[in-house]
Amino acid sequence: MAKYKLSIQAERDLASIFEYGIFQFGLNQAQYFLMEIEQTFEGLSRFNMSGIDVSELYLGLRKYAFKSHLIFYLPTTYGVFIVRVLHQSRDYMRSSFEDFV
């Protein structure tokens, strides 16, 4: 069965998104968003080549758009390794994709 794993930075990204969601939209909406993005991670783990190749940032890295966020991940033998989850308005070209392990 395919599965996903999160980098420490991706866990931090999700925590920040969740906190912001509670503040802006309320607890229920923040929880719903988290459930949806986790379902997206599960889908990516089954179809791990779905995203767009962005190897110019890090060899093998792919990105996948989810609502107003971009999921950066590496395909693996078990599914996917989620590297970062960033808002689409962020300049992700300036983000570090080297220190995620």
TrEMBL record:
Superkingdom of source: Bacteria
Record protein name field: Toxin
Transmembrane region(s): 70-87
Keywords, ordered alphabetically: Membrane, Toxin-antitoxin system, Transmembrane, Transmembrane helix
Organism, as annotated: Cecembia calidifontis
InterPro entries: ParE1/4 (IPR028344), RelE/ParE_toxin (IPR007712), RelE/ParE_toxin_dom_sf (IPR035093)
Entry similarity comment: Belongs to the RelE toxin family.
